[in-house]
Amino acid sequence: MTQPLMQRLWIYQSERFPLKKTVPLLAVFSAASICVSAQLSGRELPHWGAFVVGFILAMTLFFQMRVCDEYKDLVDDQNYRPDRPIPRGLVSLGTIIKLGLLTLPLAALVAWFWNASVLWLLLLVWAWLAAMTAEFGVPRWLKSHPAFYLLSHMAIMPLIDLLLTSIEWTPNGEPAPLLWMFLALSFVNGCVLEIGRKLWAPTNEIDGVETYSRLWGPRRATYVWLFCVAISLALLIAVGFATGVGVFSVIIGVFGVGICIWTAITYLRSTTPAAQDRIDTIAGLWVFLCYGTAGFLPYIVRAIS
Question: Quick one: which of 49, 79, 122, 151 has the most CB atoms within 10 Å?
């Protein structure tokens, strides 16, 4: 490669860790987690530094997850997706792993400086991420049981959210009793994102690449996706009533689910590449809407009233 390393890394992020999408989503995700924790506990919002810590932890963790995926999927990518940055030689796996390793002390220092208890939860997330990368020691079994693969890997989402909410609650003792609803929302939303990005058009399916549209068929996979969206709506409404904005959460949530249903119908009517892109985008927007509603709506309603 004759391009400078920084230019190649910029191309890499645009393809594998797009900052223009990742930064706003993780900013909302991390800030909403802190806000919900404060709302459910009946406490004032913490110092602005808490939101900076949350954003840094979210960004580093999600990048580390991408690095682990690059390592875990290298052989499959070389065989079936040679156009990806690492197989085609844009950057080396070693370079990406080194960047991932550099984020480890950054995340640890940020967590420790805020509150030592946060560091312990960060270590818990890392332990689960390491187990995920090793496919929990049973890669063949997980590959033959896609539902268990999905559930085991999405379990990292509530762990990350527990870490992010701990930025608010560790200085005050214990998490709010109803925080589990928000953690469950994170788990289900992880499934919404993961299934939504793997509902492909038949013309885009690649031999050796497992998608839910291929494993379960487009119709069944779409129904599973809508089921996850419905569970997500129920949890969003539950969090809304717990934070005093239940009616508004119902209105916003039902509107969002309506768009999800319409997107699913158009995908099933014509499973084109455009429909595939649309359902992937709507999955992300639904998750964005959930966190925005759960985290910020109580403060917006309070400010207006």
Answer: 122
Tell whether the torsion through CA atoms of 180, 54, 290 and 161 is positive or negative.
Answer: negative
> For the chain, which domains are there?
7-138+145-174 (1.10.357.140), 178-305 (1.20.120)
What pLDDT band is residue 208 in, cutting at 50, 70 and 90? Answer: confident
| One-letter identity of residue 218 | P
Q: Is the dihedral of CA 28, 29, 34, 36 positive or negative?
A: positive
Distance CA 142, CA 97 (A): 24
The CA-CA-CA angle for residues 140, 138, 64, to 5°, reads 105
CB 110 within 8 A of CB 53: yes
Encode pLDDT of 69-102 as tens digits. 999 999 999 999 999 999 999 999 999 999 999 9
Q: How far is CA 172 from CA 4, 110, 153, 277, in A?
A: 48, 18, 30, 43
27 contact partners, CB below 8 Å, separation of at least 6: 55
CA 191, CA 280: separation in Å to the nearest integer? Answer: 12
Dihedral sign computed on CA atoms, order 133, 136, 139, 141 = negative
177 backbone dihedrals φ, ψ, rounded to 5°: -55, -30
pLDDT at 1 over 60: no
Take residue 46 and report the two structure tokens written for it.
Answer: 């913490």
- The whole-chain average pLDDT of the chain stands at 95
What pLDDT shows up at residue 256?
A: 98
User: How many whole angstroms separate alpha carbon 205 and alpha carbon 199?
Assistant: 10
Asked whether the predicted pLDDT for residue 148 surpasses 90, the reply is yes
The arithmetic mean of pLDDT across residues 155-172, rounded, is: 96
End-to-end distance of the chain based on CA atoms, in angstroms?
59
Maximum Cα–Cα distance across the chain: 59
pTM exceeds cut of 0.85: yes
